[in-house]
Amino acid sequence: MENVLEIKGLSKNLGSFRLDKVSFSLPRGYIMGFIGPNGAGKTTTIKLLMNLMHRDGGDIRVFGLDNRRYEKEIKQRIAFVYDESHYYENLSLLDNRRIVAHFYRDWDEKAFQRRLRDFDLPPHKKLKNLSRGMRTKFGLAIALSHAAEFLLMDEPTSGLDPVFRSELMDILQQLLVEENKSVLFSTHITTDLERVADYICFINQGRIVLCQSKDEMLQGHVLVKGALEQLSPEAEKMFIGLRKNHYGFEGLSADPQGIRQFFGDGVLMESPGLDEIMVFYVRGHHHV
Amino acid sequence: MFKLLLKDLLVLKSSIIWAMTYLLAIIVIFSMTPPFDKFIYIMAGYGATYILIMGALMAEFKNNSDILLNSLPVKRHEIILSKYLTALILTLLALAVAAILGLIINLLPLPLSIRLMSGMDAAIVLLMAALTLTIVMPVNLIFSNQAARVAIVMVFMLLFFAPVWIKGFIMDKRQAEWAQFLINTAVSHPVLLLAAGAGLLLLLLALSLIISLRWYEARDF
Question: Which residue of chain B is at minimal alpha-carbon distance from A143?
Fold first, then answer.
Protein backbone atom coordinates (compact mmCIF):
# COMPACT_ATOMS: atom_id res chain seq x y z
CA MET A 1 0.00 0.00 0.00
CA GLU A 2 1.39 3.43 -1.00
CA ASN A 3 1.89 5.88 1.83
CA VAL A 4 1.17 9.58 1.44
CA LEU A 5 2.96 10.29 4.68
CA GLU A 6 5.91 8.58 6.35
CA ILE A 7 7.41 9.98 9.54
CA LYS A 8 10.44 8.26 11.05
CA GLY A 9 12.21 9.12 14.29
CA LEU A 10 11.00 12.71 14.27
CA SER A 11 12.48 14.73 17.14
CA LYS A 12 12.19 18.31 18.28
CA ASN A 13 13.37 19.82 21.53
CA LEU A 14 11.38 22.87 22.62
CA GLY A 15 12.91 23.16 26.08
CA SER A 16 9.98 22.34 28.34
CA PHE A 17 8.61 19.91 25.76
CA ARG A 18 10.29 17.30 23.59
CA LEU A 19 8.94 15.41 20.60
CA ASP A 20 10.67 12.08 20.95
CA LYS A 21 11.35 9.89 17.91
CA VAL A 22 7.84 10.02 16.52
CA SER A 23 7.21 7.50 13.74
CA PHE A 24 4.04 6.64 11.83
CA SER A 25 2.71 6.42 8.30
CA LEU A 26 -0.57 7.08 6.53
CA PRO A 27 -1.64 5.01 3.50
CA ARG A 28 -3.18 6.81 0.53
CA GLY A 29 -6.96 7.19 0.59
CA TYR A 30 -7.48 6.86 4.33
CA ILE A 31 -8.34 9.11 7.26
CA MET A 32 -5.99 9.04 10.21
CA GLY A 33 -7.03 10.51 13.52
CA PHE A 34 -4.06 12.03 15.33
CA ILE A 35 -5.19 12.10 18.93
CA GLY A 36 -3.77 13.05 22.27
CA PRO A 37 -4.39 15.45 25.13
CA ASN A 38 -3.56 19.14 24.86
CA GLY A 39 0.20 19.64 24.73
CA ALA A 40 0.89 16.05 23.62
CA GLY A 41 2.79 17.07 20.48
CA LYS A 42 0.11 16.98 17.77
CA THR A 43 0.54 20.56 16.59
CA THR A 44 4.35 20.36 16.82
CA THR A 45 4.29 17.26 14.60
CA ILE A 46 2.05 19.00 12.07
CA LYS A 47 4.16 22.14 12.12
CA LEU A 48 7.27 20.04 11.46
CA LEU A 49 5.44 18.32 8.63
CA MET A 50 4.53 21.70 7.12
CA ASN A 51 8.05 23.08 7.65
CA LEU A 52 6.72 25.70 10.02
CA MET A 53 9.30 24.37 12.46
CA HIS A 54 12.78 22.94 11.98
CA ARG A 55 13.26 19.37 13.15
CA ASP A 56 16.21 18.28 15.29
CA GLY A 57 16.21 14.75 13.90
CA GLY A 58 14.28 12.20 11.90
CA ASP A 59 12.77 12.04 8.45
CA ILE A 60 9.48 13.23 6.96
CA ARG A 61 8.38 12.02 3.55
CA VAL A 62 5.20 13.24 1.90
CA PHE A 63 4.20 11.49 -1.35
CA GLY A 64 7.59 9.76 -0.99
CA LEU A 65 9.46 13.10 -1.14
CA ASP A 66 11.55 14.77 1.55
CA ASN A 67 9.40 17.55 2.99
CA ARG A 68 12.22 20.08 3.12
CA ARG A 69 13.87 19.44 -0.22
CA TYR A 70 10.61 19.28 -2.16
CA GLU A 71 8.69 21.76 -0.01
CA LYS A 72 7.03 23.73 -2.80
CA GLU A 73 6.09 20.66 -4.83
CA ILE A 74 4.61 18.96 -1.75
CA LYS A 75 2.67 22.04 -0.65
CA GLN A 76 1.04 22.24 -4.07
CA ARG A 77 -0.52 18.86 -3.27
CA ILE A 78 -1.33 19.44 0.42
CA ALA A 79 -4.33 21.29 1.81
CA PHE A 80 -4.43 22.55 5.37
CA VAL A 81 -7.02 23.65 7.90
CA TYR A 82 -5.68 24.89 11.23
CA ASP A 83 -7.36 25.45 14.58
CA GLU A 84 -7.30 29.20 14.00
CA SER A 85 -7.91 31.15 10.85
CA HIS A 86 -4.75 32.88 9.62
CA TYR A 87 -6.42 34.51 6.66
CA TYR A 88 -6.71 38.29 6.45
CA GLU A 89 -9.53 39.46 8.72
CA ASN A 90 -10.11 42.80 7.05
CA LEU A 91 -10.56 41.29 3.63
CA SER A 92 -13.63 39.65 2.18
CA LEU A 93 -13.72 35.92 1.48
CA LEU A 94 -13.26 36.63 -2.22
CA ASP A 95 -10.20 38.80 -1.60
CA ASN A 96 -8.71 36.14 0.65
CA ARG A 97 -9.37 33.65 -2.12
CA ARG A 98 -7.62 35.99 -4.62
CA ILE A 99 -4.54 35.93 -2.40
CA VAL A 100 -4.37 32.18 -1.95
CA ALA A 101 -5.58 31.00 -5.38
CA HIS A 102 -2.56 32.44 -7.21
CA PHE A 103 -0.20 30.17 -5.33
CA TYR A 104 -1.79 26.94 -6.60
CA ARG A 105 -1.29 25.78 -10.15
CA ASP A 106 -4.40 23.55 -9.96
CA TRP A 107 -6.77 26.09 -8.44
CA ASP A 108 -10.35 25.11 -9.28
CA GLU A 109 -12.57 28.20 -9.17
CA LYS A 110 -15.73 26.22 -9.90
CA ALA A 111 -15.03 23.91 -6.97
CA PHE A 112 -14.44 26.92 -4.72
CA GLN A 113 -17.69 28.60 -5.75
CA ARG A 114 -19.53 25.30 -5.21
CA ARG A 115 -18.06 24.96 -1.72
CA LEU A 116 -19.06 28.55 -0.87
CA ARG A 117 -22.64 27.70 -1.84
CA ASP A 118 -22.57 24.30 -0.08
CA PHE A 119 -21.25 25.86 3.12
CA ASP A 120 -23.55 28.93 2.93
CA LEU A 121 -20.59 31.30 2.98
CA PRO A 122 -21.18 34.97 2.03
CA PRO A 123 -18.41 35.76 -0.49
CA HIS A 124 -18.39 39.52 0.00
CA LYS A 125 -18.44 39.49 3.77
CA LYS A 126 -15.23 40.33 5.63
CA LEU A 127 -13.64 37.42 7.43
CA LYS A 128 -13.74 39.27 10.77
CA ASN A 129 -17.55 39.30 10.58
CA LEU A 130 -17.81 35.50 10.37
CA SER A 131 -18.30 33.11 13.26
CA ARG A 132 -15.55 30.65 14.19
CA GLY A 133 -17.44 27.82 12.50
CA MET A 134 -17.86 29.85 9.31
CA ARG A 135 -14.15 30.66 9.28
CA THR A 136 -13.31 26.99 9.57
CA LYS A 137 -15.70 26.30 6.70
CA PHE A 138 -13.95 28.96 4.64
CA GLY A 139 -10.59 27.35 5.43
CA LEU A 140 -12.06 24.05 4.31
CA ALA A 141 -13.49 25.60 1.12
CA ILE A 142 -10.01 26.89 0.23
CA ALA A 143 -8.43 23.55 1.18
CA LEU A 144 -10.78 21.63 -1.10
CA SER A 145 -10.36 23.87 -4.14
CA HIS A 146 -6.89 23.13 -5.43
CA ALA A 147 -7.02 19.40 -6.13
CA ALA A 148 -4.94 18.55 -3.05
CA GLU A 149 -4.37 14.84 -2.48
CA PHE A 150 -3.61 15.11 1.20
CA LEU A 151 -5.67 17.13 3.67
CA LEU A 152 -4.00 18.15 6.90
CA MET A 153 -6.27 19.32 9.71
CA ASP A 154 -4.97 20.54 13.03
CA GLU A 155 -7.72 20.69 15.65
CA PRO A 156 -10.24 22.11 13.16
CA THR A 157 -13.17 21.34 15.46
CA SER A 158 -11.84 22.77 18.72
CA GLY A 159 -14.25 25.32 20.13
CA LEU A 160 -16.99 24.40 17.67
CA ASP A 161 -20.45 23.13 18.44
CA PRO A 162 -21.45 19.45 17.94
CA VAL A 163 -23.70 20.27 14.97
CA PHE A 164 -20.86 21.81 13.00
CA ARG A 165 -18.48 19.05 14.05
CA SER A 166 -20.90 16.43 12.79
CA GLU A 167 -21.30 18.36 9.54
CA LEU A 168 -17.53 18.47 9.10
CA MET A 169 -17.26 14.72 9.60
CA ASP A 170 -19.91 14.20 6.91
CA ILE A 171 -17.90 16.34 4.52
CA LEU A 172 -14.74 14.36 5.23
CA GLN A 173 -16.47 11.07 4.73
CA GLN A 174 -17.95 12.26 1.45
CA LEU A 175 -14.54 13.46 0.32
CA LEU A 176 -13.02 10.12 0.93
CA VAL A 177 -15.69 8.26 -0.93
CA GLU A 178 -15.81 10.65 -3.90
CA GLU A 179 -12.26 11.86 -4.27
CA ASN A 180 -10.01 9.29 -2.62
CA LYS A 181 -8.11 11.88 -0.60
CA SER A 182 -5.98 11.14 2.43
CA VAL A 183 -6.60 13.01 5.67
CA LEU A 184 -4.54 13.54 8.81
CA PHE A 185 -6.95 14.90 11.40
CA SER A 186 -5.51 16.05 14.69
CA THR A 187 -7.91 16.47 17.59
CA HIS A 188 -8.36 15.97 21.29
CA ILE A 189 -12.11 15.49 20.75
CA THR A 190 -11.94 11.80 19.92
CA THR A 191 -15.68 11.37 19.44
CA ASP A 192 -15.28 13.27 16.15
CA LEU A 193 -13.16 10.44 14.83
CA GLU A 194 -15.14 7.38 15.91
CA ARG A 195 -17.29 7.64 12.80
CA VAL A 196 -14.80 8.59 10.13
CA ALA A 197 -11.24 7.54 10.98
CA ASP A 198 -9.63 4.43 9.49
CA TYR A 199 -6.43 4.73 11.51
CA ILE A 200 -5.69 6.22 14.89
CA CYS A 201 -2.34 7.51 16.01
CA PHE A 202 -2.24 8.35 19.68
CA ILE A 203 0.50 10.63 20.99
CA ASN A 204 1.19 11.56 24.59
CA GLN A 205 4.03 13.62 26.09
CA GLY A 206 5.78 13.76 22.74
CA ARG A 207 5.76 9.99 22.17
CA ILE A 208 3.58 7.76 20.04
CA VAL A 209 1.63 5.47 22.37
CA LEU A 210 -0.40 3.56 19.80
CA CYS A 211 -0.72 3.73 16.05
CA GLN A 212 -2.98 1.25 14.32
CA SER A 213 -6.28 0.83 12.52
CA LYS A 214 -9.24 2.15 14.50
CA ASP A 215 -10.92 -1.25 14.54
CA GLU A 216 -7.77 -2.97 15.81
CA MET A 217 -7.44 -0.35 18.51
CA LEU A 218 -11.05 -0.65 19.66
CA GLN A 219 -11.15 -4.45 19.48
CA GLY A 220 -7.75 -4.78 21.12
CA HIS A 221 -8.90 -3.07 24.29
CA VAL A 222 -11.57 -3.86 26.83
CA LEU A 223 -13.17 -1.73 29.49
CA VAL A 224 -13.68 -3.71 32.69
CA LYS A 225 -15.95 -2.82 35.61
CA GLY A 226 -16.10 -4.81 38.80
CA ALA A 227 -15.97 -4.93 42.59
CA LEU A 228 -12.83 -3.92 44.47
CA GLU A 229 -12.52 -7.39 46.05
CA GLN A 230 -11.90 -8.85 42.61
CA LEU A 231 -8.77 -6.76 42.16
CA SER A 232 -5.65 -8.57 43.29
CA PRO A 233 -2.13 -7.11 42.71
CA GLU A 234 -1.75 -9.74 40.00
CA ALA A 235 -4.99 -8.59 38.32
CA GLU A 236 -3.96 -4.94 38.48
CA LYS A 237 -0.95 -5.71 36.31
CA MET A 238 -3.33 -6.59 33.46
CA PHE A 239 -4.63 -3.03 33.28
CA ILE A 240 -3.21 -0.06 31.41
CA GLY A 241 -5.18 2.27 33.61
CA LEU A 242 -7.38 1.84 36.64
CA ARG A 243 -9.91 4.03 38.34
CA LYS A 244 -10.99 2.94 41.85
CA ASN A 245 -13.61 4.32 44.18
CA HIS A 246 -15.63 3.05 47.16
CA TYR A 247 -18.05 1.20 44.91
CA GLY A 248 -15.65 -0.65 42.67
CA PHE A 249 -13.14 -0.27 39.89
CA GLU A 250 -13.09 0.54 36.23
CA GLY A 251 -10.07 -0.30 34.14
CA LEU A 252 -8.77 -0.52 30.59
CA SER A 253 -6.86 -3.54 29.43
CA ALA A 254 -5.10 -4.31 26.15
CA ASP A 255 -5.59 -8.03 26.76
CA PRO A 256 -9.31 -8.83 26.36
CA GLN A 257 -8.67 -12.57 26.21
CA GLY A 258 -6.51 -12.59 29.34
CA ILE A 259 -9.15 -10.57 31.19
CA ARG A 260 -11.86 -13.02 30.16
CA GLN A 261 -9.80 -15.95 31.37
CA PHE A 262 -8.84 -14.27 34.62
CA PHE A 263 -12.18 -12.82 35.69
CA GLY A 264 -14.60 -15.09 33.83
CA ASP A 265 -18.14 -13.73 34.09
CA GLY A 266 -17.44 -11.99 37.41
CA VAL A 267 -16.90 -8.55 35.86
CA LEU A 268 -18.65 -6.37 33.32
CA MET A 269 -16.71 -6.08 30.05
CA GLU A 270 -17.45 -3.39 27.49
CA SER A 271 -15.91 -2.09 24.29
CA PRO A 272 -14.15 1.17 25.09
CA GLY A 273 -14.43 4.35 23.04
CA LEU A 274 -11.35 6.23 21.80
CA ASP A 275 -11.97 8.75 24.55
CA GLU A 276 -11.70 6.09 27.25
CA ILE A 277 -8.62 4.54 25.67
CA MET A 278 -6.93 7.95 25.61
CA VAL A 279 -7.93 8.85 29.16
CA PHE A 280 -6.72 5.55 30.67
CA TYR A 281 -3.43 5.62 28.80
CA VAL A 282 -2.81 9.21 29.87
CA ARG A 283 -3.84 8.88 33.49
CA GLY A 284 -2.67 5.32 34.17
CA HIS A 285 -3.49 3.87 37.59
CA HIS A 286 -5.30 6.89 38.90
CA HIS A 287 -7.24 6.31 42.08
CA VAL A 288 -10.33 8.44 42.71
CA MET B 1 7.29 36.71 -6.05
CA PHE B 2 4.59 38.45 -8.10
CA LYS B 3 1.95 36.52 -6.13
CA LEU B 4 3.31 37.88 -2.85
CA LEU B 5 3.35 41.44 -4.24
CA LEU B 6 -0.24 41.03 -5.33
CA LYS B 7 -1.08 39.78 -1.85
CA ASP B 8 0.40 42.93 -0.30
CA LEU B 9 -1.54 45.19 -2.66
CA LEU B 10 -4.79 43.41 -1.76
CA VAL B 11 -4.04 43.55 1.95
CA LEU B 12 -3.20 47.25 1.65
CA LYS B 13 -6.32 48.22 -0.28
CA SER B 14 -7.67 50.53 2.41
CA SER B 15 -4.21 51.79 3.45
CA ILE B 16 -3.50 52.80 -0.15
CA ILE B 17 -6.62 54.98 -0.24
CA TRP B 18 -5.72 56.51 3.12
CA ALA B 19 -2.08 57.11 2.07
CA MET B 20 -3.14 58.78 -1.17
CA THR B 21 -5.60 61.04 0.70
CA TYR B 22 -2.78 61.99 3.07
CA LEU B 23 -0.54 62.69 0.11
CA LEU B 24 -3.08 65.01 -1.50
CA ALA B 25 -3.76 66.77 1.81
CA ILE B 26 -0.04 67.42 2.45
CA ILE B 27 0.49 68.77 -1.05
CA VAL B 28 -2.54 71.07 -0.89
CA ILE B 29 -1.97 72.29 2.69
CA PHE B 30 1.77 72.90 2.53
CA SER B 31 2.06 74.13 -1.06
CA MET B 32 1.40 77.68 0.16
CA THR B 33 3.10 77.45 3.55
CA PRO B 34 6.75 78.53 3.41
CA PRO B 35 9.25 77.12 4.23
CA PHE B 36 7.44 73.74 4.02
CA ASP B 37 6.52 74.29 0.36
CA LYS B 38 10.13 73.38 -0.49
CA PHE B 39 9.69 69.96 1.07
CA ILE B 40 6.12 69.03 0.11
CA TYR B 41 7.11 66.13 -2.13
CA ILE B 42 9.48 64.76 0.49
CA MET B 43 6.89 65.10 3.27
CA ALA B 44 4.07 63.72 1.14
CA GLY B 45 6.09 60.93 -0.50
CA TYR B 46 7.78 59.71 2.65
CA GLY B 47 4.62 60.07 4.76
CA ALA B 48 2.62 57.96 2.32
CA THR B 49 5.44 55.40 2.15
CA TYR B 50 5.47 55.22 5.94
CA ILE B 51 1.70 54.61 6.06
CA LEU B 52 1.97 51.84 3.46
CA ILE B 53 5.01 50.05 4.89
CA MET B 54 3.60 50.08 8.41
CA GLY B 55 0.18 49.06 7.06
CA ALA B 56 1.72 46.01 5.40
CA LEU B 57 3.69 45.00 8.51
CA MET B 58 0.68 45.60 10.77
CA ALA B 59 -1.62 43.46 8.60
CA GLU B 60 0.82 40.52 8.73
CA PHE B 61 1.25 40.91 12.48
CA LYS B 62 -2.48 41.25 13.22
CA ASN B 63 -3.43 38.12 11.29
CA ASN B 64 -0.34 36.13 12.29
CA SER B 65 -0.18 35.44 8.60
CA ASP B 66 3.33 33.98 8.66
CA ILE B 67 1.61 30.67 9.42
CA LEU B 68 -0.59 31.02 6.33
CA LEU B 69 2.19 32.21 4.03
CA ASN B 70 4.57 29.47 5.13
CA SER B 71 1.89 26.83 4.59
CA LEU B 72 1.48 27.89 0.96
CA PRO B 73 3.77 26.64 -1.80
CA VAL B 74 6.30 29.41 -1.33
CA LYS B 75 9.83 29.50 0.05
CA ARG B 76 10.76 31.52 3.11
CA HIS B 77 13.36 33.61 1.28
CA GLU B 78 10.71 34.57 -1.28
CA ILE B 79 8.51 35.91 1.52
CA ILE B 80 11.31 38.11 2.87
CA LEU B 81 12.49 39.30 -0.54
CA SER B 82 8.93 40.22 -1.41
CA LYS B 83 8.60 42.28 1.79
CA TYR B 84 11.58 44.42 0.76
CA LEU B 85 10.48 44.58 -2.85
CA THR B 86 6.94 45.55 -1.88
CA ALA B 87 8.29 48.42 0.24
CA LEU B 88 10.30 49.66 -2.74
CA ILE B 89 7.30 49.42 -5.06
CA LEU B 90 5.08 51.22 -2.53
CA THR B 91 7.64 54.04 -2.30
CA LEU B 92 7.73 54.33 -6.09
CA LEU B 93 3.93 54.30 -6.14
CA ALA B 94 3.76 57.10 -3.57
CA LEU B 95 6.32 59.12 -5.55
CA ALA B 96 4.48 58.56 -8.82
CA VAL B 97 1.17 59.65 -7.32
CA ALA B 98 2.81 62.72 -5.71
CA ALA B 99 4.41 63.68 -9.04
CA ILE B 100 1.15 63.23 -10.95
CA LEU B 101 -0.80 65.23 -8.36
CA GLY B 102 1.75 68.04 -8.58
CA LEU B 103 1.45 68.03 -12.36
CA ILE B 104 -2.37 68.02 -12.28
CA ILE B 105 -2.49 70.87 -9.76
CA ASN B 106 -0.14 72.83 -12.04
CA LEU B 107 -2.23 72.22 -15.12
CA LEU B 108 -5.59 72.97 -13.57
CA PRO B 109 -6.68 76.58 -13.03
CA LEU B 110 -6.51 76.29 -9.22
CA PRO B 111 -5.55 79.05 -6.80
CA LEU B 112 -2.49 76.97 -5.80
CA SER B 113 1.08 77.55 -6.77
CA ILE B 114 3.20 74.42 -6.68
CA ARG B 115 6.51 73.41 -8.19
CA LEU B 116 6.95 70.11 -10.00
CA MET B 117 8.69 67.18 -8.34
CA SER B 118 12.44 67.11 -8.94
CA GLY B 119 14.80 64.17 -9.22
CA MET B 120 16.37 65.24 -5.93
CA ASP B 121 12.96 65.02 -4.17
CA ALA B 122 12.53 61.47 -5.45
CA ALA B 123 16.10 60.50 -4.53
CA ILE B 124 15.72 61.84 -0.97
CA VAL B 125 12.39 60.02 -0.45
CA LEU B 126 13.92 56.79 -1.78
CA LEU B 127 16.90 57.15 0.56
CA MET B 128 14.64 57.89 3.53
CA ALA B 129 12.46 54.89 2.70
CA ALA B 130 15.57 52.71 2.32
CA LEU B 131 16.84 53.83 5.74
CA THR B 132 13.43 53.11 7.28
CA LEU B 133 13.32 49.69 5.68
CA THR B 134 16.90 48.91 6.71
CA ILE B 135 16.07 49.40 10.35
CA VAL B 136 12.38 48.56 10.65
CA MET B 137 12.25 45.26 8.74
CA PRO B 138 14.72 43.22 10.85
CA VAL B 139 13.39 44.84 14.05
CA ASN B 140 9.85 43.81 13.07
CA LEU B 141 10.95 40.24 12.35
CA ILE B 142 13.33 39.68 15.24
CA PHE B 143 11.52 41.55 17.98
CA SER B 144 7.92 42.52 17.35
CA ASN B 145 5.61 44.78 15.46
CA GLN B 146 5.51 47.08 18.48
CA ALA B 147 9.30 47.32 18.51
CA ALA B 148 9.12 48.16 14.80
CA ARG B 149 6.74 50.99 15.57
CA VAL B 150 9.16 52.34 18.17
CA ALA B 151 12.00 51.91 15.66
CA ILE B 152 10.16 53.87 12.99
CA VAL B 153 9.67 56.78 15.43
CA MET B 154 13.41 56.65 16.10
CA VAL B 155 14.08 56.71 12.36
CA PHE B 156 11.86 59.79 12.12
CA MET B 157 13.85 61.47 14.89
CA LEU B 158 17.07 60.47 13.18
CA LEU B 159 15.89 61.87 9.86
CA PHE B 160 14.83 65.14 11.43
CA PHE B 161 17.67 65.75 13.85
CA ALA B 162 20.66 63.91 12.44
CA PRO B 163 21.22 66.26 9.44
CA VAL B 164 21.29 69.30 11.76
CA TRP B 165 23.58 67.52 14.21
CA ILE B 166 25.92 66.29 11.45
CA LYS B 167 26.01 69.77 9.90
CA GLY B 168 26.83 71.34 13.28
CA PHE B 169 29.53 68.73 13.94
CA ILE B 170 31.17 69.32 10.54
CA MET B 171 31.03 73.11 10.97
CA ASP B 172 32.67 72.81 14.40
CA LYS B 173 35.49 70.80 12.86
CA ARG B 174 35.68 72.86 9.68
CA GLN B 175 39.43 73.45 10.16
CA ALA B 176 40.06 69.72 9.87
CA GLU B 177 41.14 68.36 6.49
CA TRP B 178 38.31 65.80 6.23
CA ALA B 179 35.70 68.45 7.11
CA GLN B 180 36.99 70.80 4.44
CA PHE B 181 36.91 67.98 1.92
CA LEU B 182 33.28 67.24 2.80
CA ILE B 183 32.27 70.92 2.65
CA ASN B 184 34.00 71.40 -0.70
CA THR B 185 32.40 68.27 -2.13
CA ALA B 186 28.96 69.33 -0.87
CA VAL B 187 29.35 72.72 -2.55
CA SER B 188 30.97 71.63 -5.81
CA HIS B 189 29.62 68.10 -6.30
CA PRO B 190 26.41 67.62 -4.25
CA VAL B 191 25.35 64.69 -6.43
CA LEU B 192 28.60 62.89 -5.61
CA LEU B 193 27.92 63.26 -1.91
CA LEU B 194 24.37 62.02 -2.37
CA ALA B 195 25.65 59.06 -4.39
CA ALA B 196 28.16 58.21 -1.66
CA GLY B 197 25.34 58.37 0.92
CA ALA B 198 23.16 56.20 -1.31
CA GLY B 199 25.99 53.68 -1.71
CA LEU B 200 26.44 53.44 2.04
CA LEU B 201 22.70 53.09 2.53
CA LEU B 202 22.48 50.34 -0.10
CA LEU B 203 25.21 48.48 1.72
CA LEU B 204 23.26 48.78 4.98
CA LEU B 205 20.07 47.73 3.19
CA ALA B 206 21.84 44.62 1.87
CA LEU B 207 23.03 43.85 5.39
CA SER B 208 19.49 44.32 6.71
CA LEU B 209 18.19 41.93 4.04
CA ILE B 210 20.78 39.29 4.94
CA ILE B 211 19.93 39.57 8.65
CA SER B 212 16.18 39.32 7.91
CA LEU B 213 16.67 36.33 5.61
CA ARG B 214 18.84 34.42 8.08
CA TRP B 215 16.50 35.10 10.95
CA TYR B 216 13.39 34.14 9.04
CA GLU B 217 14.95 30.98 7.59
CA ALA B 218 15.90 29.78 11.08
CA ARG B 219 12.63 30.72 12.74
CA ASP B 220 10.08 28.27 14.17
CA PHE B 221 6.45 29.34 13.85
Answer: B72
